[in-house]
Amino acid sequence: MPTYVYHCTACTDTYEVDQRITENALTTCRCGSEGTIKRIIQPIAVMFKGSGFHINDYAASTASTAPKTEAATESKPAETPKTEAAPSPAPATTESASSS
User: Fold this and answer.
1) H, E, C per residue of the chain
2) Which end of the chain has the smaller Cβ count within 10 Å, N or C?
3) Contact 4, 23 (CB under 8 A)
4) Residue spans per domain, the chain
5) How many degrees, rounded to 5, is the angle at CA 35 between CA 29 and CA 41?
6) Number of neighbouring beta carbons within 10 Å of residue 2
7) Are 55 and 48 in contact (CB under 8 A)?
8) pLDDT tens digit sequence for 83-96
């Protein structure tokens, strides 16, 4: 069951309440004032530690596939592309003059 934090402007009290997600927000404070209470949005506390989480297992491999910066490519000498030799033409065949 989620825990929600409420703050009352009348008594300046801040407290936590366990409520179901389907329940409506509180409108009455513990001090008895009505309409002076507001639900405060809290950040979630999720930590992805250890192996087995996509963010931990694949974070390093995505960094290696990222495009390199211009400074990193300038330090390497440029490679010349290797050209393949053109295939030599097939020898010409001569037909014999024996056709009648």
Assistant:
1) CCEEEEEECCCCCEEEEECCCCCCCCCECCCCCECCEEEECCCCCCCCCCCCCHHHHCHHHHHHCCCCCHHHHHCCCCCCCCCCCCCCCCCCCCCCCCCC
2) C
3) no
4) 1-66
5) 75
6) 11
7) yes
8) 666 666 666 666 55
For residue 47, what are its two tokens?
């930590």
Token pair for 30: 């513990």
- Left (φ > 0), alpha (ψ -120 to 50) or beta: where does 29 sit? beta
**Main-chain dihedrals φ then ψ at residue 8, nearest 5 degrees:** -105, 130
Question: Residue 16, Cα to own-chain centre: how many angstroms?
Answer: 32
For residue 35, name the pLDDT band (cuts at 50, 70, 90): confident
Structure tokens at 22: 């389907």
Distance (Å, rounded) from C-alpha 18 to C-alpha 2?
A: 6
pTM above 0.70, yes or no: no
Q: Is it the case that residue 47 has pLDDT exceeding 70?
A: yes
